[in-house]
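Hi C.,

You asked whether I'd gotten around to modeling the 202-residue construct. I have! Everything is below, sequence then structure, no commentary in between.
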Amino acid sequence: MTAGSSAPAGSVGTVGAEGAEGTVGAVATAGPVGSGVGSGLGFDPIARARQQWTEQGWDAAADGMAAITSLMRAHQIVLARVEATLKPLGVTFARYEVLMLLWFSKRGSLPMKVIGSRLQVHPTSVTNAVDRLEDAGLVTRSTHPEDRRAMLVALTPAGRELAERATKVLNAEVFEQPDLGAEDVHSLVDVLTRLRRSAGDF
C-alpha cells in the first residue's frame, strides 16, 4: 500500500479545450490534486466526460475511462482525508506506513530492502521516509548484524507510541467511517483486489 501522488483526474485528456464545461478537462475542476475538496459543480464531470466519450464514438473506451478516472479522483479524496487526519501528529501517510510495518514486525525492526518490498515502493521513497522518521527520532538506522551491506531500520519507543496514536485516530476518523455502507465496502475491496491481482500486484 502506498500513498504516492496520482495524476489529476482530468489528465486523461481534454476534448474541446476551449472551456466547454462538459469536457474531460472539467474533471480536474473537482478540486486540486489530493485536496479532497469538492468543486461545487452542479454536475458530475466524470459522468459528463463519459457522455462526451460516447458522443465522439469512443463507446468501447467510455466505461473504462469513467472507471479509471473515478478511481484516480477517489484516491485523491481519501488520501486527502488521511493526510489531514495525520497532519496534527506531524507524520505523512507514507511515513505512517513505515512505522506500522515496523510496529507489526516481531522485533520492531526490518531491513530497508524488506520495507520497500512490503510497501511496494521504490527504494528512494523508502530512504526518504526513513530519513524523515530518523530525523524526528521515530526510528534508528544501523548496519544489519548479519549482512553488512544491508541497513536495518528499528522503531524507537517514540516511534512506537506515535504509530499507536496515529492508528487510533485513523481508525476512529477514517477507517471506521469510509463514507460507504458495509456491503459497498466489501464490494469495493473485492473489485480492487481483482484489479490489483490482474495487474500483478501480488
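If it helps when you're writing up: The helical segments are 45-55, 59-86, 93-104, 112-119, 123-135, 157-175, 182-198.

Thanks,
B.
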